[in-house]
Amino acid sequence: MSLPFAETVGEGPELVLLHGWGLHAGIYEPIRAELTAQFRVTFVDLPGFGRSAAPTEPYSLTMLRDQVLSVAPAKAHYLGWSLGGLVATQIAIDAPARVNKLITLCSNPRFLQGDDWPHAMKPEVLDTFTRSLEQDYQATLLRFLAISSMGSETQKDDLKQLKERLFIYGTPSTDALRGGLALLHDADVRSRLHEIQLPFLRLYGQLDALVPAKVAADVQALSPRSEQHVFRHASHAPFLSHKRDFIDVVTGWLRD
Q: pTM higher than 0.85 for the full model?
């Protein structure tokens, strides 16, 4: 399997950025200048997305963990958004010597709602994405972006920015799209969160329709050493809708 695409820019402490499902590292363009002015940032396209080749192995957290680590610095801070947050969490659990500090953004240790995990994505929402993916994947991606920005006070502008960047590196691999959705459906790292002993910050959007902010208390119970911050009036992409606040929170916490 070929190595994923990675680009390293800037000077300062090492920082790895991981994107969410269906997208690529180019989604961080609006905050790129601010972050690379303070950190040496490695932007990674997960296998099958952006500039990375389609996966030749089944999608799994361990495969994504190994792929990211193969192009990441020897030790770095990690910031993962949505699905990328799940990958960053797996890295912090399995390879803590490679991680300084961990930040997850609008992510969930179990994305799928269940009887014992009420604050998560409803099964019917994920099932709809999975079914529609086979019929029209581009329309499915656009619907996902619309839900990601829904409720934000800058919803129209957020959606415009997401749409503009969606296909700038071509279309994603259908295997990666399917595999990513399967991961969101099946992955569950709740039982291992207590293993994370390094500094851990969880960021949420108050109006997020995909990762409800109410899950913050549930995750806190599983990872009592971790910290959390909720962006008011933000949806699933606070780095777009609340760019200044997002930069201040992230850079401030990483430099403490």
A: yes
